Predict the 3D structure of the following.
Amino acid sequence: MKIKDIELFQLEIPLKKPFSTSLHTVKEARNTVVRIVADDGRAGWGEGSPTEVITGDSNASIRGYIENCLKPILLGEDPGSLEKITSLVQDSGAGNTNAKAAVEMAVYDLFGQQLGVPVYQFLGGYQNKLQTDMTVSVAGVDEMEKDARKAVEAGFPTLKLKVGKDLLEDLERVKTVRSAVGSEINIRLDANQGWQPKEAVKIIREMEELGLDIELVEQPVLAEDFAGMKYVKDNVLTPIMADESLFSPRDAIRLIKEECCDLFNIKLMKSGGLSRALMINSVAEAAGIECMLGCMLESKIAITAAAQLAGARRNITRLDLDAPLLLAENPVQGGITYQGPQIELPRVPGLGISQVENLKELR
Ligand SMILES: [Mg+2]
């Protein structure tokens, strides 16, 4: 099997409601879809979901990088030589993690189809049933309470609350949601870099004293502030998870060496795809750090790839793969299926994506 063509499309999907973090508000998912066609007629699917404020990518940069830097070196290559292809992709240049992730995904899809097994199986095959949390956008206290109740009614045992706006209000948000959903629901927080280190220690300690029972706090401080994250980790009991500070396997090694955090959040759009995500997870597992698999506003294409990885490895113990549930439409046929928070991986070869509708041709 040889790679014959790499096709690019635009995919635009409105959200059920605007999605807000401390960094930005989004009303629509605008992603780049990659379809790699092999000379035997098979096709592999991939997707890049740019979040400018985190990865610096845009749809235009994803397209440009794939067209100019990845396509020329991958045409004619055999997806069966997976290590060679992922090396070509990763060594092609710096940054551009969305473009690399999208292309790698499609290659893993073809590789799985060639082998005749689902991606999660050849990556480790640990389990094919998973459970995701549900994210609650940062908003006014009443709205967050309403959204949290809705998620619990829909059967989600774990909520991820977006905070990081303002200390007093953040505390109010968490207190209100905890009293609304009761003690049985697992609550994790994501500050998306919104706090100063000392503010983070103050508010997390207060939550601990109030018995709000927070499972973990994601990225309390600025991505570059490794010392600040270590300060927070050393001064609270609640586990601290690195997200925006963790892109590459090298970041993982540094976070481990400098003892900055207790947990990792891996996202394909940050790592540059499955190969580097696997590497980060292995480094983490060796260091005794469990990983969550998270996402950007991806459709079921990229989320299926992330879920395939999560199902493969024992050390990926938490999932934040709710993006398709935030979208008003699902243009993707095949891939994972949701039942409330339960995710089931497809049992067909590759990623299991059969068709994608509403794709806009480019140029
Ligand atoms: Mg996060």
